[in-house]
């Protein structure tokens, strides 16, 4: 999943919560998991910045990759 896909999924989550299709505790847990994914990507970026690591296949950040959406 990349950032564009996550944004779409979170928008759908919001709409489903708003129209009652999903219960608040489920939405809360899904939102929590999405936040952890975002924080992990931020941590990976910071690690690469501090180590001045060049992007490679071994340190790819999937959330930040594009699929052309």
Task: Please provide a written account of the structure.
With 69 residues, this protein is mainly alpha-helical. It has helices at 3-18, 24-51. Helix 1 (3-18) packs antiparallel against helix 2 (24-51).
Ordered list of secondary-structure elements with their pairings:
Layout: H1 3-18, H2 24-51
Helix pairs in contact: 1-2
| Average pLDDT level | 83
**Sheet bearing the most strands, described?**
none
Question: N-to-C terminal Cα separation, in Å?
Answer: 12 Å
Unreliable sequence segments = none
**SSE order, one letter for each helix or strand:** HH
Shape: elongated
Q: For the CA atoms, what is the radius of gyration? A: 15 Å
Oligomer: single chain
Structural class: mainly alpha
Brief characterization of the structure:
The protein is mainly alpha-helical and 69 residues long.
Features:
69 residues; mainly alpha; 64% helix; 0% strand
């Amino acid at each position: 999943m990349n950032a564009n896909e996550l944004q779409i999924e979170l928008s759908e989550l919001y709409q489903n919560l708003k129209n009652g299709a999903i219960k608040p505790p489920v939405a809360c847990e899904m939102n929590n998991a999405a936040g952890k994914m975002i924080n992990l990507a931020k941590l990976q970026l910071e690690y690469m910045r501090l180590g001045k690591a060049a992007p490679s296949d071994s340190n790819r950040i999937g959330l930040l990759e594009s699929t052309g959406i």
